[in-house]
Design brief:
Rossmann fold, single chain, binds magnesium ion, alpha/beta, binds zinc ion, 7-stranded parallel β-sheet, 7 helices, 239 residues, two-stranded antiparallel ribbon
Length: 239
């Protein structure tokens, strides 16, 4: 393993060679247990993994959630076009402080479509981490699906593949976790993985219309800050 500083690494299926299987990307989530971890908390409601409590995560769509959406059907293709959403860093820091893993799950079919190469996408994600790290809000992991819609992969949202993989690698209790996104596809993904869901309806073209589509999210929020408040309120009640 090459051991990125900060324990953060991209998990781009078939872009960076796929999972390295070390499971070492997380900050002690699965620890040295690494791959092979656990069944992600889906076995009979067990809330432990190899003797450790499973962790809770907030899965975050990227465009329109962490950064300003480039617009429906458009992509962020250059570092300078990655503009952080206004209250994203603060909201993420609050969730982190409450013990949630922060895991970005993003479809970037721009790679599969040949609009962006994998190293350029890595640079954009490095930039994202730098922006967020200053607020103590760098994500624990970034999972991305680089495939085109026609590829039929199991990681492109609304397939829950990225969430299931993260759950396995980090030891996440999906039913105690949340998916936040700005499209109906994100809500579908979160529900398919057994998470609760929040739809962001501000700052995203089509966001408001997505709210009316099935499946219904557990909550609707106008910003990541509002979504964090929903999550933290709920988390408080469940302790
Ligand atoms: Mg989005
Ligand atoms: Zn994929």
């Amino acid at each position: 393993m090459d051991g990125h500083e900060g324990g953060i690494r991209d998990r781009c299926a078939s872009v960076s060679g796929g999972p390295d299987g070390s499971g070492a990307g997380g900050p002690g989530a699965t620890g040295s247990g690494g791959p092979g971890g656990c069944a992600a908390g889906r076995s009979g409601g067990q809330n432990v993994c190899a003797g450790r409590p499973l962790r809770r995560a907030v899965f975050l769509d990227r465009d329109g959630v962490i950064n300003v959406s480039p617009g429906e059907g458009k992509f962020v293709l250059r570092v300078e076009d990655f503009r952080p959403a206004e209250d994203a860093a603060e909201a993420l820091a609050r969730l982190r402080a409450a013990g949630f893993l922060l895991i970005v799950v993003t479809n970037q079919s721009c790679v599969g479509r040949g609009l962006l190469d994998a190293s350029a996408l890595d640079r954009i994600h490095d930039h994202m981490r730098e922006l967020l790290a200053g607020s103590g809000a760098a994500p624990d992991a970034v999972y991305c699906c680089p495939h085109s819609p026609e590829a039929g992969c199991d990681c492109r949202k609304p397939e829950p593949g990225m969430l299931l993989r993260a759950a396995h690698e980090f030891g996440i209790n999906l039913s105690a976790s949340w998916m936040v996104g700005d499209s109906a596809r994100d809500i579908e993904t979160g529900r398919a993985a057994g998470c609760r869901t929040i739809l962001l309806i501000a700052g995203a073209p089509g966001g408001a219309t997505a709210a009316g589509k099935s499946p219904a999210p557990d909550a609707v929020a106008r910003s990541l800050g509002e979504a964090a408040a929903v999550i933290l309120g709920e988390a408080g009640q469940r302790r």
